[in-house]
Amino acid sequence: MRMNAWRQAALAAFVLCASAGAQAALFEDDEARRAILDLRQRVEAVRQQAEAGAQENAQLRRSLVELQQQIDGLRGDLARMTGQNEQLTRTLTEMQQRQSDIDNKLKQNEPTQVSVDGREFSADPKEKADFDAALGVFRAGQFAQAQTAFADFVKRYPRSGYAPSALYWLGNAQYATRNYTEAVANFRSMLSTAPDHPKAPEAVLSIANCQIELKDTRAARRTLEDLVKAYPQSEAAQAGRERLSRLR
After folding, report:
1. This prediction's pTM
2. Alpha-carbon torsion (129, 131, 133, 139), positive or negative
3. What mean pLDDT is predicted for residues 53-82?
């Protein structure tokens, strides 16, 4: 009986140990499963993060591509605008040059203030050039050519401020070429249009000189008397008095 009791006790102890070992193994399996599940969850989280990062990278690359395309488009627009601006600048420069040329031409044709034989007035550049040219011919002693030049001037510019002076110098050119009758007519025409002209006293004296050359002493005496009365303070009047004394 003692032996059976010992066997029973040993069997009971074995069963108890086996039961405890089984429970311990069971506990270890649960922890392992939980660890595996936790690891799987971590792996899934990492995978999801990797996929999200990949999607973000892909979106970022697409955004970069779109941004580069926009930059290229802007560069193209800028290049076109630069070309247009350069063309506009060239066009503006050409227009300004043309306007400058037009302004210069207008200025060349604008009347200017001139002074001739003691008179000041406004004259066109072409008008001034023609008168100066005719006077230059006269002063060069080319009296026949000066007659033609001054006669043409009077015809072209009958209302010019130069007209009285042109008639005066035309008369002098005719006197120099002994066209006395024509000279008298032009001196008188000058006096009728500008009796207050600074050259008027000399024109009257020149008429008297022409009359003397024409042997019309009586007419010359009357002209000299008129000269002294009309322009008593002039140098021409002084010369007229001397000639009157010689004509008497």
Report:
1. 0.59
2. negative
3. 81
